[in-house]
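REQUEST FORM: STRUCTURE PREDICTION
Request ID: SP-0412
Submitted by: Lab K.M.
Chain count: 1
Length (residues): 549
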Amino acid sequence: MKFKLLIISLFLSATSLGAQESAFLRERTFLTTDRDSYAAGEQILCSAFSMDSPATLSGFSAIAYVELVGTEGTVATGKIGLVNGRGAGSVAIPHDVPTGNYRITAYTACNKNEKGYDFMTGSRVISIYNTSLTAREKDAVAVVDQLSEAEAPAPMSGDVKVDIVPDGDYITVSLTSPVDASVSVSVFHELGLPRYSPASLASLIENAWDKPTTYERNAIPEYDGEIIRLKPGVPVDSLTLFLSSPGGRSDIYKGRAKDDGCVSFYTDNIFGDKDIAVVSLSSELSSGDIEIVSPFVSPETASVPVLEIAPSMRNAIETLDAAAKIKRAFDADTLYSLLPVRKLDPMNKYQNIYIIDDYTRFATMKEVFIEYLHDIFIRREGSRIRMDVKTLDAKGFPYYNHFAPSLILLDGVPVFDHNIIYDMDPALMKQVEIYPSYYAFGGTLFAGAANFVTVTGDFAGTQLGRGTRIISFKGASIPRSYSPLPADGDPSFPRRDETLYWHPAITLQKGQPLEFQVMAPSYSGTFNLVIQGLTPDGSPINIVRSFEL
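STATUS: Completed
RESULT:
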């Protein structure tokens, strides 16, 4: 961590010397999506390519911010974790978004340091149809008798051999590339709706670095992950805050007070939409509200082409809307496959786990500590309980360090009033995880750690005290692929999806065929297989294959 912070410090120092564009990092983030047209309420599945030059992926920023912007501002946002310039996620389209064209754009914190940066750089046009509302995006929709001539599709690039073999209920796809490549792959129903984003990665990348830029120090680059900024309703000068994600054990961060009245937490990305706990060493936190400072730039408007709606589009729009409703009704989210995320777990070594059910169930936690939890030493300091975790010295011998505090967690949330756990009902406790090693974060050294896991994983109704606040947080999207293949093989499952297959991060290895299966839909029509991505030297890949079922 110190080494990474030193890199960021050197980066800021170098750029603050007034160097021109070649002296600081210029990242550009591009998105591919599973489709170009959606019904309101659907998820836009995204694959991100963050680059620091037209030829190389960037290994710097660890998170990208995504906004869906129309003529009247931002209507939806999302976050995508990045690893070596690649990431994946989704953006939920609100159910009340008016029909119209929108731009989906992505950027990193580094872009906030470029004076006059156009946050629509590399954006794509997304068409949204809302059959439940008569509202239309301002100045972005025109009802016509006949559609204008379609724009020319983006030129093909790349040399990936594609074999598509329909066979009954399944479609077998084989991809073979003459070079290594990182790509997204989508198979979707071609409805014939107007397409306003024919741009490929090649055309998006081509002019992204042409405009000269100068540096302004507006934001700290996010090398490890998102920097979460909170604004407590109380002065932060003497406030020590910790942030954690209930149910986890790695998402624990110590805040740093800033001159602007905010407290910053340097995370390695928290994934998913969840509650987070903000813990204060004092009770001052309970006297005011906590505001999460938005990391989004929220452009006031975006220039989009006018969405034409003609009578000939009626059947296609109704088909799109019906597929979205069927997908929601049958809980199609269960058909997503979660992909790995970069996640550090500093407590994954030397752990001893005490399963409470493996021993006699006692009536009080005091008895549990005395009879079972021999790695935790309990002592009283007046009316307060202090817990010390048995740690290992340099030679591996266990001992108690009564001078340095131990980190005590309840379902992954720091608890500094140990009486809260000591007074709990043991029937609420599932297990205790012991980490007999020194653990340092935020400038504080802890002599070991203990995580008390409840049967519910969310405190089991325990009140954590006036110094703890639980707030809702929208983290980085959990990367996932999609393929509607029912796990139980139920033939009655409705196969009406418009997206038949989506994988945001496929690695093609030179000369090695990659094969996967797609479940055929229960309807006939024209379908597109789209491959977009990059080779190691930055050469873009854009391949479209159409087939009939």
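NOTES: Residues 206 and 242 are 44 Å apart (CA to CA).
Reviewed by: T.R.
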